Amino acid sequence: MKVLLINGSPHKNGCTYTALCEAEKVLREANITTEVCQLGTAPIRGCTACGACVKLGRCAFGEEDGVNELLQKLPGADGFIFGSPVHYAAAGGSITSLLDRLFYAGGKYLSQKPGAAVVSCRRGGASAALDQLNKYFMFNQMPVASGNYWNMVHGNTPAEVLQDEEGLQTVRVMAKNMAWLLRCIEAGKNAGVTPPVGEAKIKTNFIR
């Protein structure tokens, strides 16, 4: 089993990374393979709603900014943790652009696999950012791994994040629940339990 952890912060070893490392440590102790992917400072363009990915099976612009490189990792992962700093009470621009395109082009590789989000903030806006990220999971039929509070850490530096004992505990509990979900799904598969059959998407336009 493998969990992919995406660091959506421009700071490679910053506060968001510190929180993800706490989750990764728990997962490794549970004998789950992990891989941390750094978005870094390279620009990631937003989705243009061109629809080309439906035919191509990949993002038409993904070779430019590494989105397709990450897309190729999705089939080999069993669970996902997305980390983001809080910018203006929302997830960071880079990870928002990434997730818009990743879920649109590769949603079938994410569907029905456990997902979790972790946000890092200095002071406020974490709940709104976390709610934004969790909506990607709910739209895509992904079980959400939760902690014993909302998955957020506080601090202006990694050292301050390490002082947020409650926040780090929440991240650890989330990672334990992620490991548990993965084992439950694996046990179900081994017992012959199959995922629910999906329905064709119904789209209702309010203005006709």
Structure, explained:
The chain has 208 residues and is an alpha/beta fold. The chain is built from eight helices and six strands, in the order E-H-E-H-H-H-E-E-H-E-H-E-H-H. It has helices spanning 15-29, 52-56, 62-65, 67-71, 93-110, 126-139, 158-161, 165-190; strands at residues 2-7, 33-38, 79-87, 90-91, 115-121, 152-154. Strands 1, 2, 3, 4, 5 and 6 form a six-stranded mixed β-sheet that branches. Helix 6 (126-139) links the parallel strand 5 and strand 6. The radius of gyration is 17 Å and the shape is globular. The termini are far apart.
Q: What is shown here, in short?
A:
This protein has 208 residues and is an alpha/beta fold.
How are the secondary structure elements laid out?
Elements: E1 2-7, H1 15-29, E2 33-38, H2 52-56, H3 62-65, H4 67-71, E3 79-87, E4 90-91, H5 93-110, E5 115-121, H6 126-139, E6 152-154, H7 158-161, H8 165-190
Parallel strand pairs: 1-2, 1-3, 3-5, 5-6
Antiparallel strand pairs: 3-4
Helix pairs in contact: 1-8
The helix/strand series, from N terminus to C terminus, equals EHEHHHEEHEHEHH
- Binned, the helix content reads 40-55%
What's the oligomerization state? single chain
End-to-end CA span:
46 Å
Round the Cα radius of gyration to an integer and report it.
17 Å
Query: How many distinct helices?
Result: 8
SS strand fraction: 15-25%
The helix/strand class is alpha/beta
Mean pLDDT: 96
- What overall geometry do the principal axes of the alpha carbons give? globular
Low-confidence stretches are none
Largest sheet: 6 strands, mixed
Q: Total number of β-strand segments?
A: 6
